[in-house]
Design a protein that fits this description.
The complex is a heterodimer of chains A (600) and B (84). Helix content of chain A is 68%, strand content 1%. Chain A has 600 residues and is mostly helical. Chain B contains three helices and two strands; from the N terminus they run ααββα. In chain B, helix 1 packs antiparallel against helix 3. The chains are: A mainly alpha (600), B mainly alpha (84).
């Protein structure tokens, strides 16, 4: 059977598995639809959280970005794991004790105001929708390759499948389905990584392989990689920072606190039986996430190495030392099959700028005169960072079933996260907004219907924007984290750790934090991410004008603004009532936690 | 029954502070601020600063959460505020 056939078979089999599980555990009442009756074991909950969390950004996009960013890519690795420490200590146990099942409910009750909960819904929608745009980008890449169609067509097919998938089952279906999805995606990620690590270093564990010598030599893999990339005019792999140390620092903060503020992750900790379990659940989630996250740096460096080896075989093997030597690069006609397959999607492109029929892949912004001297007229190969992980097993010439498995894993990652987010969006709109605020006598059936309509609209908007995404999948997702970091995280922190924070302070803080972050992001990326509506001109026209901090990292600054505004405004208004202070006191103590009731 | 809720909260905050110090030092300290200096030290084929940014901090994060969960369990019992 050919590659295409095996891919259909494996992707089809995994889908049948998820749908089977969803059918088996089909959701009944509204409460079950959202939180699965509060009875999921911490280890299983950890796996499901892992699947929910590791989206197209982690699976498909992240290692490709690290391959290009080198050391600087560490900000994704630290940022998207370190947030769990904050989540476990600062939020999860207290929100579990509080015993409601959405973030806006907590904000509304703690800040004794429906206005506060409406503002929280707006923040949640902004972050979740942006997140789904990133997923759609990833789904588009996966489907375009898997079905051999253009990227645009891939996004359309992805929209249809996400729609069927998310509207189909509730959280209970989703919790057990997500355990299955975790297993598929982690196998799909680690199996090729083990193969490639063995090929390159002889060590099966990529975590150790990355720190080992190249097979048959006494040169460390990272040393070799440093040497080849610098020869080609790129930054040194192991030391290249992301723009600046300050930017990298702020970016990491933004991702960490964004992790702790993302509604679809927080809601996971409402589904464990006890406060105690909420604490350890975060630990288990991180164990399962860490398996992928500690593999990713190996995948990144080894994919980069294999890509360079494909294009400059003589240089990587050491037979040649001059990268500009006429026969150091392969000719376009010699290019391997995988490049032809990816050319179909439009995500890998070759233009023979100097007309010599060979592929020159290098940093054409490099000042090194040797490139011009050799007649190189610019970089000729563009490889979209989002294809690196999916193409990785093909580049390494691994067996067809491994390539098919990676396609299945990428789809599992994107679908599970999209479904979790859509659920957060639908409960925010149908429950927190419609039922609580505008239509108090909405029936349970009406609520479910409204939730499904909200899902459909979100998919449409996100799919449309995903056609022209603001960034690579992981970059778009980072913006979503920034929005959550600047709005939801501070509000939750203030709600738990400040007894005297009043509603005026919290609302003003959320609006200011979200507002300033959106302003900075939209100035760079266009109003609501629509291309051509950037307004950097208003701020002097220079990108990253705030201390060189890029828009993806700005959430951390937004969070500081949020805290500052909240404390300033708090002083102008009366303190919260007695019973709210008592509520905060009780949230801090585990005893007396209840099964979560569908208190509506 | 009256609990020493002030004492419990104080102890909780102290634990959180200690864990956050380690959390900050491994990621922001060793992984970012001091990484350029640490890179002259090698851990196998890894420059040390690079290792902290792309491997080490993640392992330590996992350990920190389980340590915290365990220490909190003990605090709950000590102040008699645990569930059931």
């Amino acid at each position: 059977m050919g590659l295409q056939g095996i891919t259909y078979l494996i992707v089809g089999a995994t889908f049948a598995l998820y749908i089977g599980i969803a059918l088996w555990a089909r959701a009944g009442s509204t409460k079950e639809f959202y939180v699965a009756g509060g009875s999921v074991h911490p280890v299983l909950n950890g796996m499901a959280t892992g699947a929910d969390w590791m989206s197209a950004a982690s699976f498909i996009s992240m290692a490709g970005l690290i391959a290009n960013m080198g050391y600087g890519g560490g900000l994704f690795l630290m940022g998207w794991t370190g947030g769990y420490v904050l989540l476990a200590m600062l939020l999860a146990p207290y929100l579990r004790k509080f015993g409601k099942f959405t973030v806006p409910q907590f904000v509304g009750d703690r800040f004794y105001s429906k206005g506060a909960s409406t503002v929280a819904v707006i923040c949640l929608l902004a972050a979740s929708l942006t997140y789904i745009i990133g997923q759609m980008t990833g789904v588009g890449v996966a489907f375009s390759r898997f079905l051999g169609v253009s990227n645009t067509m891939g996004v359309f097919i992805g929209m249809a499948i996400v729609f069927v998938y998310a509207v189909f089952g509730g959280m209970k279906g989703i919790t057990y389905t997500q355990v299955a999805q975790y297993c598929v995606l982690i196998l799909a990620y680690t199996v090729p990584a083990i193969f490639i690590s063995l090929q390159l270093t002889g060590n099966p564990l990529p975590q150790l392989g990355l720190g080992s010598d190249m097979v048959g030599t006494d040169v460390a893999l990272l040393t070799k990689l440093d040497q080849v990339v610098t020869d080609l005019g790129f930054g040194k792999y192991t030391t290249m920072t992301r723009l600046s140390q300050l930017n990298m620092f702020v970016y990491t903060v933004s991702l960490m606190i964004g992790t702790a503020g993302l509604p679809h992750v927080i809601v996971r900790f409402f589904t464990v039986p006890k406060v105690k379990d909420a604490r350890s659940s975060a630990g288990w989630a991180l164990v399962f996430i860490a398996i992928l996250y500690t593999t990713a740096p190996g995948v990144a460096a080894m994919a980069k190495m294999n890509l360079l080896k494909t294009i400059n075989p003589g240089i990587v093997s050491g037979a040649l030392t001059d990268v500009t030597a006429p026969d150091a690069q392969i000719t376009y006609d010699e290019r391997p099959e995988w490049m032809k397959r990816w050319e179909v999607t439009g995500l890998l492109k070759f233009t023979d700028k100097n007309g010599d029929g060979r592929i020159q892949y290098y940093n054409d912004k490099s000042k090194d005169p040797k490139f011009a001297a050799a007649g190189w007229a610019g970089n000729e190969l563009t490889v979209n960072a989002d294809i690196m992980v999916l193409a990785n097993p093909e580049i390494a010439l691994l067996p067809n079933w491994v390539i098919a498995l990676v396609a299945a894993g990428g789809l599992a990652a994107a679908l599970s996260t999209a479904a979790g987010l859509l659920l957060a969006i639908s409960s925010a709109i149908s429950h927190d907004l419609l039922k609580e605020k505008f239509m108090p006598d909405l029936s349970e059936k009406g609520e479910l219907l409204a939730g499904k309509i909200a899902m459909a609209c979100s998919i449409f908007v996100a799919g449309y924007l995903g056609l022209n995404p603001p960034d690579f999948a992981a970059g778009t997702v980072a913006i979503a984290f920034g929005l959550a970091a600047s709005s939801i995280f501070p509000a939750l922190m203030l709600g738990i750790f400040s007894r005297t924070m009043n509603k005026e302070g919290a609302i003003a803080g959320m609006l200011a934090g979200l507002g300033v972050t959106m302003l900075y992001v939209f100035a760079h990326k266009g109003l609501f991410f629509i291309k051509g509506t950037e307004f950097l001109g208003l701020f002097g026209g220079k990108a990253n004008f705030f201390f060189g901090i890029e828009p993806n990292a700005f959430g951390a600054i937004g969070a500081c603004v949020n805290f500052a505004v909240a404390f300033a405004v708090k002083r102008m208004f009366p303190a919260p009532p007695e019973e709210i202070v008592a509520l905060v006191e009780s949230v801090r103590i585990p005893r007396g936690s209840k099964e979560i009731g569908g208190a509506h | 029954m009256q609990h020493d809720s002030v004492g419990y909260w104080k102890a909780t905050l102290a634990l959180i502070r200690n864990v956050l110090i380690v959390w900050f030092v491994v990621s922001y300290g060793l992984g970012i601020i001091l990484a350029p200096a640490l890179n002259s030290i090698k851990l196998g084929g890894y420059p040390l600063g690079f290792w902290f940014a792309q491997q080490g901090s993640i392992y330590i994060f996992v350990a920190l959460i389980f340590y915290y969960a365990k220490a909190m369990g003990k605090l709950d019992e000590k102040f008699d505020v645990h569930e059931d």
